[in-house]
């Protein structure tokens, strides 16, 4: 019998294996960000860890939700919507060219209450660990690479976070329901470049984290496990069977389910 | 004998009790933010928790450090410096009036590499708990109030974090070493107001957190402890003695120490 961690891990691996553009997961983008795949593969090759959500980093521009509803300040929430979103730094430059902004600021008594925000959000990874010892080791590895907003939640899930952000209000919603820009094109170009710098910094932090996880998490595990050849063969057979079974279930389930839930990240 | 948690708690309470403007702590500001005091007092009245650092939220404007040194992107770091910082929303409006900016953008081939950032950073609290059960309960309480970037670190320290931020590049350092603004005064006024909105939102989140901690952390503890009158009297006596002893030590130590270290928050 597989324990509950191994069952959960097999189920998630099966979901990852069947996710592609034709068969999307429940995130807004629908697929795993390419930049995350190498580090996810490394983490998931460790017998005591499994990634549960990931976003490699992104630029988004959106109109805030209606605060009379339940929308939070600076969040898309109810009634807000994306004007632009990308996980690819090559797509950032001049993103505004296809967007229909009003550029004339009105001199009226109208007090805007909903704003247009330009955000850069860095890598975020959630990793479920088999036990607290593994979770603490992963947490400390992340902290040592500068992911200073990391922390362990419930069920030994480690949130890996860093604060290389941009959070810039650039406009507002006017009385006619049009988005009005408060900055000029020079400034938009300037923050595009700032976002690209942060994409680069984020990528180098991601690579550092990947190296450190490979060094620190695997070195000690191998010593700790001391599995015999036979134990390893049996474990691999059990894991393979569980993965196959979960894969079959997953394929059935996806056909039954809708795609309209939004997880926290991605 | 007090256990190590009680000793640490007595020492921190003694530090808090002796900190004031004439006798500052090691944070840049030197004193505890007023808005934090009520929630800190509540937390610290619980026998299994002690606050280890706090910042009630602030606006800061600074020149980034020199990236050739070890400075991080978007951080003050080596060679950077504050142009303005406040924890008081009433001080935000028109902060730039006393600062000597160049407002004329030069048309040259100079590529700036150091930027001026305007930031709003919300409440952050670190709380050391006696055990993992208490840490997990506090973590879940914080998450339930929207402090979604919270997490448990090592030694049962809970980091309580929320992402109501602003992170806005507004200028750069030119060849002559002067700060040049990239936005106009209208935009500066606009982001002042955005920061004040976030201060208000932050304060209401802080109050919500305070209420929930009072409700959730204390209700169950009282049931759990079931301390007799005599046990309580003995504990209070022990705690009082330890606090007094730590207070005396702390007063001696402060006279010996410099004030030039910067902790992470505050």
UniProtKB/TrEMBL annotation, chains A, B:
Catalysis performed (reactions): 4-demethyl-7-[(3S)-3-amino-3-carboxypropyl]wyosine(37) in tRNA(Phe) + S-adenosyl-L-methionine = 7-[(3S)-3-amino-3-carboxypropyl]wyosine(37) in tRNA(Phe) + S-adenosyl-L-homocysteine + H(+)
GO terms of molecular function: tRNA methyltransferase activity
Pathway(s) per entry: tRNA modification; wybutosine-tRNA(Phe) biosynthesis
Region (Disordered): 226-266
SUPFAM superfamilies assigned: SSo0622-like
InterPro entries (UniProt xref): tRNA_yW-synthesising (IPR003827), tRNA_yW-synthesising-like_sf (IPR036602)
Basic and acidic residues composition bias: residue spans: 226-256
Single Gene Ontology BP annotation: tRNA methylation
Family of this protein: Belongs to the TYW3 family.
Function, as annotated: S-adenosyl-L-methionine-dependent methyltransferase that acts as a component of the wybutosine biosynthesis pathway. Wybutosine is a hyper modified guanosine with a tricyclic base found at the 3'-position adjacent to the anticodon of eukaryotic phenylalanine tRNA.
Name of the protein in its database record: tRNA wybutosine-synthesizing protein 3
């Amino acid at each position: 019998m597989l324990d509950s961690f191994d069952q959960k891990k097999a189920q998630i691996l099966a979901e990852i294996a069947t996710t592609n553009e034709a068969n999307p997961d429940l995130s807004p983008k629908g697929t795993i960000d390419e930049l995350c795949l190498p580090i996810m593969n490394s983490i998931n090759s460790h017998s005591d860890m499994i990634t549960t959500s990931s976003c490699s980093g992104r630029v988004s521009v959106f109109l805030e939700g209606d605060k009379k509803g339940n929308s939070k300040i600076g969040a898309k929430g109810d009634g807000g919507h994306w004007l632009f979103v990308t996980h690819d730094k090559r797509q950032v430059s001049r993103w505004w060219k296809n967007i229909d902004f009003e550029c004339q600021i009105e001199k009226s008594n109208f007090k805007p209450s909903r704003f247009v925000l330009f955000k850069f959000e860095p890598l975020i990874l959630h990793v479920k660990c088999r036990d607290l010892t593994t979770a603490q080791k992963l947490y400390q590895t992340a902290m040592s690479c500068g992911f200073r907003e990391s922390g362990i939640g419930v069920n030994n899930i480690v949130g890996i976070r860093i604060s290389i952000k941009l959070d810039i209000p650039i406009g507002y919603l006017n009385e006619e329901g049009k988005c009005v820009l408060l900055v000029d094109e020079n400034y938009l170009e300037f923050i595009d470049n700032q976002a690209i710098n942060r994409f680069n910094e984020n990528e180098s932090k991601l690579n550092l984290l990947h190296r450190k996880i490979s060094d620190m998490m695997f070195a000690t595990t191998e010593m700790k496990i001391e599995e015999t050849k036979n134990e390893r063969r049996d474990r691999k057979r059990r894991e393979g069977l569980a993965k196959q079974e979960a894969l079959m279930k997953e394929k059935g389930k996806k056909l039954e389910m809708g795609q309209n839930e939004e997880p926290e990240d991605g």
